[in-house]
């Protein structure tokens, strides 16, 4: 029983280690929020402030831990109702979750071939 509890506790701690967010600029100086989803990857979680043209970088530096992460996904409702007109998504992104760009007025969007919509 103690061994199972210890394994469960270690698992929970490892998950909590990745459940972090941080803010960083995109290539057009818009502030985006990122979720750490693994030791090397982040997902765009939210649009915080800036203009109407988004250019998501393929990598971002976390100012809290100094680690450079690959941007590999865009989260659920990440850019909901922000009045966006254009979005450039880098080749590093492989998934776009439900409603990621809902409620915007997009006239231009660049989506790499390797992206799957979830």
The helical percent reads 10-25%
Oligomer: single chain
Per DSSP E runs of 2 or more residues, the count of β-strands stands at 10
What's the average pLDDT?
88
Main beta sheet: 7 strands, mixed
Write down the Rg.
Answer: 16 Å
| Topology order in helix (H) and strand (E) letters | HEEEEEEEEEE
Query: Helix tally?
Result: 1
Q: Look at the helices and sheets and give the structural class.
A: mainly beta
Proportion of beta-strand residues: 35-45%
End-to-end CA span:
39 Å
Shape: globular
> Segments where pLDDT lies below 50 for 5+ residues?
5-17
Q: What does it look like?
A:
The chain is mostly beta strands and 118 residues long. Helix content is 14%, strand content 36%. It is built from 1 helix and 10 strands; from the N terminus they run αββββββββββ. The strands form 2 sheets. Strands 1, 2, 3, 5, 6, 8 and 10 form a 7-stranded mixed sheet that branches. A hairpin with a 5-residue loop joins strand 1 and strand 2. The longest helix has 17 residues. The chain is globular and about 35 Å long. About 11% of the residues have low confidence.
Could you list some keywords that capture this structure?
118 residues; mainly beta; seven-stranded mixed beta sheet; three-stranded parallel beta sheet
Short account of what is shown:
The protein is mainly beta and 118 residues long. The protein contains one helix and ten strands; from the N terminus they run H-E-E-E-E-E-E-E-E-E-E.
């Amino acid at each position: 029983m103690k061994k199972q509890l210890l394994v469960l506790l270690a698992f929970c701690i490892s998950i909590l280690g990745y459940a972090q967010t941080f803010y960083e600029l995109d290539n057009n100086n818009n502030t985006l929020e990122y979720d750490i989803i693994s030791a090397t990857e982040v997902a765009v979680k939210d649009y915080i402030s800036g203009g109407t043209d988004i250019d998501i970088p393929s990598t971002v530096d976390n100012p809290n831990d100094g680690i450079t992460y690959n941007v590999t996904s865009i989260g659920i409702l990440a850019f909901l109702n922000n009045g966006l007109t254009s979005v450039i998504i880098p080749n590093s992104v492989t998934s776009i979750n439900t409603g990621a760009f809902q409620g915007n007025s997009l006239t231009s969007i660049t989506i790499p071939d390797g992206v799957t919509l979830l």
